[in-house]
């Protein structure tokens, strides 16, 4: 397993629509393992393949609390089966937007169908942080970022700060 570098926004790879996985084979299982390792190293509660530059429909999440046993979930081709009409607002961040958080409105509960690491079709129902996290990661597969749920002004403010941060980092690297 490898810790992969996580792409920071803005970046065209984060706006791409990712390709479905044909079959969860050894290559995809390796990707799932690398994503999990990279997510834990960050640390974060979710990560998607496009965030490490691989434009495939693969995500991982683990919303277990620090004092709980790890509960990693790895999914290929996740699809929404159902979302609740009830929505909730909550603070959200993203590993591609370091140190930026904002309130995002999302469905309170979801039902999702996906392929597991054994290539079996599974369904999961989730609420709370897990539902939010799954919806956030699934958005990534369609090039939708959490800032896309915010107002134009707020989104541009965050993106401008990130561009500035990247320029500073490049300058330091020279
Ligand atoms: Ni994210």
What does this structure look like?
The chain is of the alpha+beta class. It has 3 helices and 7 strands; from the N terminus they run αβββββββαα. The longest helix is centred in the last third of the chain and has 22 residues, at 152-173. The mean pLDDT is 96. Bound molecules: nickel (II) ion (NI).
Give the ligands present. nickel (II) ion
CATH class: Alpha Beta
Uncertain segments are none
Could you report the average pLDDT, rounded to the nearest whole number?
96
Q: Domain count, please report it.
A: 1
Beta-strand content estimate: 25-35%
For this structure, what is the CATH homologous superfamily? Answer: Peptide deformylase
Terminal residue distance: 31 Å
N-to-C SSE series? HEEEEEEEHH
Secondary-structure blueprint:
Layout: H1 26-41, E1 46-48, E2 58-61, E3 73-83, E4 87-92, E5 102-107, E6 109-115, E7 121-127, H2 128-141, H3 152-173
Antiparallel strand pairs: 1-2, 2-3, 3-6, 4-5, 6-7
Bound molecules: nickel (II) ion (NI).
Residues 94-96, 136, 140 line the site of nickel (II) ion.
Brief rundown of the structure:
The protein has a single domain (about 10-174), classed as Peptide Deformylase. Helix content is about 30%, strand content about 25%.
What labels describe this entry?
single chain; 174 residues; Peptide Deformylase; 5-stranded antiparallel β-sheet; two-stranded antiparallel ribbon
